[in-house]
């Protein structure tokens, strides 16, 4: 089981069904499983999701994996390619045991540190002197934006202040990543620039609504269409410049020359659609009518939670609503929790006795050691018995202690996978 407290939570049919559906989604995006199923080595060719890439004239193969899927992806790629890999680096939020050729590095997340800079520099040094007949296999996944902290000016400490201010101000993930791209010489197409003239294939695990390549992990292998001017405008919008300790907040322009990107093949490898499809299939087998929305999960978490609860309340019996995406939380005080738990805490105040809502982070980390939470009639009864005022906890953005007390949290640990957040709403 991916969900470690599955049995403890599955006390009703609706709860059990919701957890089964969530499990199906998590297994569908299991990083090692997906790579081993979709990538094959056939003589002098590498077959990636039915696309054939000739290795006939390739001198050396390098692997550079970045983000929350990096370690697991590297383990799978070593199984497939073995000694064909010359060298590699996996920069993840955790170290991974079992790698023989690819070097495992761990950086900090959700805020960057010197470890991230050191790892980014190692990656740059590995790829910056390659030749045309070399091939780099990139794995790009969520968390990569933070991990690729390589400021031209200042340190990751300045970036931490900027990013934290943007997060606390409710900036969207695209706004945050627009700024991030211009804070580092390892994002926004820079890795493509360093790799040139070698060929490269980027396997991209999308955690972004609409799968816009340039915003996934801040697009290190993709030509950036945003500008340094736009980054400045976002900083001004959220009054961030006042926290900057260095000139121009350390912003730099991203590479714009088309030549750097000609040898690069960027492939959307895994996305929330993969998880949602598997979840839908499981829901149908359980006898539910299913509605899926891949673009609805955005905006303030507390507003989204209320809307989802209201929608499932209006739905016919045996209906399931599935959502993929990422909300935001405008932090107002000193508190603990994540966008998934806040969404559920908000939904709790609206759902009726026949409904249930579950929300989880596919990486298993909802700004805490928990993946998310669920709520239903039982949650309300627990809260009443414990004299917990959900509105007060919601006002304080303090969802973590609320669900720790009710026990309705979801625990997976770091999954080694990462697409978007996943939400399930059930009308029994």
Largest sheet: 6 strands, parallel
Count of the domains: 2
Distance between the termini: 24 Å
CATH C-level name of the largest domain: Alpha Beta
Helix-residue proportion: 25-40%
Q: Structural class given helices, strands, pairing?
A: alpha/beta
Query: What is the overall silhouette?
Result: globular
The CATH superfamily label of the largest domain reads Glycerate kinase, MOFRL-like N-terminal domain
The number of helical runs is: 16
CATH architecture of the largest domain: 3-Layer(aba) Sandwich
- What order do the strands of the largest sheet run in, or round the barrel if closed? 6-5-4-7-8-9
How is the CATH topology of the largest domain named? Rossmann fold
């Amino acid at each position: 089981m991916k969900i470690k407290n599955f049995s403890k939570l599955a006390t009703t049919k609706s709860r059990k069904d919701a957890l089964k559906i969530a499990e199906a989604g998590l297994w569908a995006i299991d990083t090692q499983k997906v790579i081993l199923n979709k990538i094959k080595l056939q003589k002098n060719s590498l077959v990636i999701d039915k696309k054939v890439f000739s290795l006939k004239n390739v001198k050396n193969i390098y692997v550079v994996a970045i983000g929350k899927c990096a370690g697991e992806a590297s383990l799978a790629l070593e199984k497939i390619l073995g000694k064909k890999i010359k060298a590699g680096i996996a920069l993840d939020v955790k170290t991974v045991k079992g790698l023989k050729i690819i070097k495992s590095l761990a950086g900090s997340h959700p805020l960057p540190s010197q470890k991230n800079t050191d790892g980014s520099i190692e990656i740059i040094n590995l790829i910056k002197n390659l030749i045309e007949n070399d091939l780099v296999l990139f794995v790009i996944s969520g968390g990569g934006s933070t991990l690729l902290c390589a400021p031209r000016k200042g340190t990751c400490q300045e970036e931490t202040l900027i990013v934290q201010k943007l997060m606390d101000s409710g900036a969207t993930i695209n706004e945050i990543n627009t700024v991030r791209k211009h804070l580092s010489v390892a994002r926004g197409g820079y890795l493509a620039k360093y790799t040139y003239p070698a060929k490269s294939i980027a396997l991209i695990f999308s955690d972004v609504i609409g799968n816009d390549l340039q915003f996934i992990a801040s697009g290190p292998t993709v030509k950036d269409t945003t500008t340094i001017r736009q980054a400045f405008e976002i900083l001004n919008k959220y009054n961030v410049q006042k926290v900057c300790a260095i000139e121009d907040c350390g912003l730099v322009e991203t590479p714009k020359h088309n030549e750097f990107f000609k040898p690069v093949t960027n492939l959307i490898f895994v996305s929330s659609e993969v998880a949602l499809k598997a979840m839908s299939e499981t829901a149908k087998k359980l006898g539910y009518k299913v509605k899926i929305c891949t673009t609805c999960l955005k905006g303030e978490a507390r507003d989204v939670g209320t809307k989802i609860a209201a929608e499932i309340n209006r739905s016919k019996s045996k209906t399931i609503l599935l959502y993929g995406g990422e909300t935001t939380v405008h932090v107002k005080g000193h508190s603990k929790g994540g966008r998934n738990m806040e969404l559920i805490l908000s939904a709790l105040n609206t759902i009726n006795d026949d409904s249930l809502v579950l929300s989880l982070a596919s990486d298993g980390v909802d700004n805490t050691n928990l993946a998310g939470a669920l709520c239903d009639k039982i949650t309300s009864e627990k809260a009443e018995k414990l004299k917990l005022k959900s509105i007060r906890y919601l006002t304080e953005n303090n969802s973590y202690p609320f669900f720790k007390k009710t026990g309705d949290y979801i625990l997976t640990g770091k999954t080694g996978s990462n697409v978007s957040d996943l939400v399930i709403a059930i009308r029994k």
